[in-house]
Specification:
- By secondary structure, the chain is mainly alpha-helical.
- The chain has 6 helices and no strands.
- Helix 1 packs antiparallel against helix 2 and helix 3 runs antiparallel to helix 4.
- The N and C termini lie far apart (about 45 Å).
Length: about 110
Amino acid sequence: QADYGGAVKTLKKILRREPQLAAAQFLLAKMHYLQKKYAVAEDYVRQALQNDPKLLEAWLLMIRINLEQQKYSGAREGLQRIRAAVSDPAVTKVIDEQLSALGNSAPSAH
């Protein structure tokens, strides 16, 4: 069993010193996600993305959190952000398929 409590305590201590540190906010989100505390995880991941919108790992976590809560519009938003950030056609094809499965038409690839 992982020591989530100790990790959360340490990360919160770091955030008291550097409240805008997206990496610490992301890790706190991940700790809460792993404990199935999705609402708290979502709050922290949103803070991380507010401080660093290009943090793709945070967008991936946001997608997972939203899917766990059946919030498909949030999952679509995360997929769209990741799609906009990558240029690999194989990756964008997979993302487009996922967007389609979530009921959203993705922009066509050129």
